[in-house]
Known about the structure:
The protein is an alpha+beta fold and 650 residues long. 26% of the residues lie in helices and 32% in strands. The longest helix has 22 residues, at 443-464.
Amino acid sequence: MTIKTLLVANRGEITRRIFRTAKSMGITCIAVYTDADSNEPFVKEADKSIYLPTNYLDIEAIIDAAKKTNSDAIHPGYGFLSENASFARAVIEANINWVGPSPEVIEAMGDKIEAKKIAQKAKVPTLPSSDNLKDFSSIGFPLLVKAAAGGGGKGMRIVEDENGLGEAISTAQREAKNAFGDERVFLERYIPKSRHIEVQILGDFHGNLLHLGERECSIQRRHQKIIEESPSSVISEEQRNLMTDAALRMGENLTYQSAGTVEFLFDDETGDFFFLEVNTRLQVEHPVTEAITGIDLVREQLKISSGERISFTQESLKTRGHAIEARLYAEDPANDFLPATGEILAFFPSKETNIRWDSGVEKGSFVGVEFDPMLAKVISHSPDRTEAALTLANALEKLHLAGITTNRDFLTSVLRHERFLEGKTTTDFIEDNLPEPKLQLTENEIENSAIKAALWLQGKNRKNAIVLSSAPSGWRNGRLPAQEVSLLHDGKELLISYKSLRDGSFVFNNEKITKLYNWSIDDVETEIEGERTNSSITEGTGTIHVQTIKGTVSFEILPRFKPPALQIAEGSLVTPMPGIVLEIRVSQGDVVSAGDTLIILEAMKMEHHIKAPYDGMVAEILVEESQQLENGVPLLVIDTPEHNEGNKDD
């Protein structure tokens, strides 16, 4: 059946990416959206958008939207309902084309325990595991507790010894139930020095099954991928053949149709590999495969679901160069990668031709707690791996991004790290190498950025001036003090003073001669002590953000007269992110030790344990279970022995 109208049952960047291919094929594109997404780019780019009064998991509402718009097909993207067999069946029963593998395959591979049995039948090597949660002795430590029905790091915990097993199982079960509606977990051997390598497969309804090579996805935090590449930097041609043959055996055993990914764990010390799972959908990291093969995987999916054959053969498939993808997340690497929320004040990617931006956001987008915090995928494609890494790092640095905390600077730190460039990218890379979590600047670089901010602010003031608007900025008819602006960067206050000189230049802090060449509402071109640059500038409410060659530098503009600060009680622990209080494990008066879990928060379907930073006594609990909290809200107060001693009467 020819697809003329396509509904994408998803949101954000993957919906925009699917639209891009579908529109190039002459297909009308339909979006569904909720209140939280009413102003997002994918809604505006659709030919027609249907409002969902509930959420993206509402099967009945999505199928009704497809019928209402006469959609011939539904593409599920990834996440949400993409691996939901009930959804696939409902689409097919509604006589709508399902873009994906059969419900039976989705169901079989959605159960990780069942998937392992099928892999063993296909003679694909698997790791020792058990669904008997008391059978840890046959596996040994360290081990993984894993959700039977999910992935993406949810419902997964590393356990080093028997003491931590009970809590890890409980936490994994809660996360699994919350994320997948299925609390079943199992135990599996954990290999510390390993790589995550996966094979892209593609099957049609004519018996053709092909692979498109491998991707390496070893750079992970919380068992979630953040940097992926193709081809792998480590496996030999012999290992590649063994792995792709195993992936095809798995696909043949499933009679696989559409795009899918067979994932393996590669032991870096022995060279052995083991089956992990089959993802029965398009993967987030599919662009790196598209880059090196020249194959549009979404186009192939749509063609296959229409009953057409795969458009190429295994023999005709050629790969070219190296591709790397970085996932840009709204999160704080300096604070255990906790998700961040807020309005995006600026999002202006660089223009390099060998860089692809798959973005779900734009200036003005709001990132809340309702969805996964991924903002964009950035993909480089170069003749070799080093060039791909450095061009990707350079593109990320040039992205003018403001208003929300992200992992952008952390990603560039990884990509430029010597061990990454050497290809030493096992799954423990972050823990072993500790890349810088945020932008590293010298005092001179910070001061120069502050000078640019001050010049932009004075230019804005001149533009908005009512009196003497034609006078040069900084002009005085007598000897008056220098103009000043106070800025705060990373907790440190900078007082920037400047005077204008007769030649139109400025002297900053009594030493730095600076020329202002051009000023606009979006940027400022300056020369500071002979160094000339043009910098994008964005102003927020009480903030200003300056683009440098290393990234975006943000300042808080301090008021001339500071209001009294809001007081937070000494010893308070505050919410590191917006979320819901899932569990309070202590009571007022309890004595706690450093590292004890006090409160568990739930945000974005992940649990976050608030732990005691030091020994003390719980003096006060300020929240209740099930309470929705914003960022920075006090949770409880811990009195230390020293604090109690100081409060005693003489």
